[in-house]
Amino acid sequence: MSNSDMEKLVDTSEEWIIERTGIKERRIADESQAASDLAYEASKIALERAGLQAEDIDLIIVATVTGDMPFPATACFLQNKLGAVNAAGFDINATCSGFLYGLYVADGLIKSGMHRKILVVGAEVLSKITDWDDRTTCVLFGDGAGAVIVGPTEEDRGILSMHINSDGRMWDLLHVPGGGSRNPASKETIDKKLHYIKMKGNETFKVAVRTLEELVVRTLEENGLDSSQLSLLIPHQANLRIIQATADRLKLPFDKVVVNLDKYGNTSAASIPIALDEAVASGRIGKGDYILLEAFGGGLTWASALIKW
Ligand code: ACO
């Protein structure tokens, strides 16, 4: 869906969207598709690239805020589609930071020896919780999924460190008020459009910039790394200006930053694994490279991962 398609829906302009966000297009899932359908496509590719069968997976973690149903977990739907009969599965709700939260859990469970092959997926069908009459949010989001498989290694590489953080005091900056136990689905919640994303964009923007700048600096410092040693920054794809501010804080040249929000918009928990996949596929990541992943989203939540590839 292009920016000119958006112009036909709401009072917006191609120029405004590009200048304020960097987004040119977003992908919208078919009406019949739910999060597990997208997760399934991404997971099949991940299994194939890892040379594994679905039966090899012993845990499935799906990061999503647009699960197929309130329950069961989307991870269980995905398990069923894949035939991953030896796995347990659960979902993680940390909005745009969800994939990194999932990776954090996987990292701990692999390092503790409790699991050996964990499928971590970020999958979102945000188009289904987007208010297509609200120009302040509908231009921003897109649908997508990405997947990784995490396992142990004896080599001198892997996930070096992770940080996850949240601050529930600012929950109201970004939320979906309806459909949960606070405001269960009713005619009234539907009439009031409470099942859609509500965001105080400008306030969220300011907190995101400040928080991410502090987070990336802290992540590198704690690992004794200088930003010049980084090969690639893979940020959550919410807004080009937020990404630029983070890169500037690290004095990182922009060719070391993965940006694909122009094509996909903000796909929440899916954005980092999609960007990671594109960086790998295009040869931007080589063995031994230091790469930094970071995300910020509703909750508020934020997270980072430093990886030696
Ligand atoms: N087209 C045209 N004008 C618009 C549009 C639009 N689509 N949307 C808003 N405007 C107007 C506003 O009404 C406002 O007009 P006013 O000055 O007359 O009141 C003006 O543009 C400026 O609006 P701001 O909200 O101040 O614009 P800003 O520069 O902050 O950009 C944006 C808005 C893109 C939403 C930005 O704030 C942002 O990216 N915020 C962070 C989003 C984010 O990172 N969220 C966390 C992750 S998402 C998740 O967790 C699911």
Provide a descriptive summary of the structure in words:
With about 300 residues, the chain is of the alpha/beta class. About 35% of the residues lie in helices and about 20% in strands. It has two domains: about 5-155, Thiolase/Chalcone synthase (Peroxisomal Thiolase, Chain A, domain 1); about 160-309, Peroxisomal Thiolase, Chain A, domain 1, CATH 3.40.47.10. The chain has eleven helices and ten strands. The two termini are about 35 Å apart.
Please render the helix and strand layout as text:
Elements: H1 3-9, H2 14-21, H3 35-50, E1 59-63, H4 74-82, E2 88-92, H5 98-111, E3 118-125, H6 135-138, E4 143-150, E5 158-166, E6 174-175, H7 187-191, E7 198-199, H8 201-222, E8 230-235, H9 240-249, H10 261-264, H11 271-281, E9 290-297, E10 301-308
Parallel strand pairs: 1-2, 1-3, 8-9
Antiparallel strand pairs: 3-4, 5-10, 6-7, 9-10
The chain binds acetyl coenzyme *A.
Taking strands numbered 1, 2, ... along the chain, how are they ordered across the largest sheet? 2-1-3-4
* Overall average residue pLDDT: 97
Following the backbone from N to C, one meets helices and strands in this order, namely HHHEHEHEHEEEHEHEHHHEE
CATH level-3 fold name of the largest domain: Peroxisomal Thiolase, Chain A, domain 1
Short description:
With 309 residues, the chain is α/β, with parallel strands linked by helices.
Relevant terms:
11 helices; alpha/beta; 2 domains; globular; four-stranded mixed beta sheet; Peroxisomal Thiolase, Chain A, domain 1; binds acetyl coenzyme *A; 309 residues; 10 strands
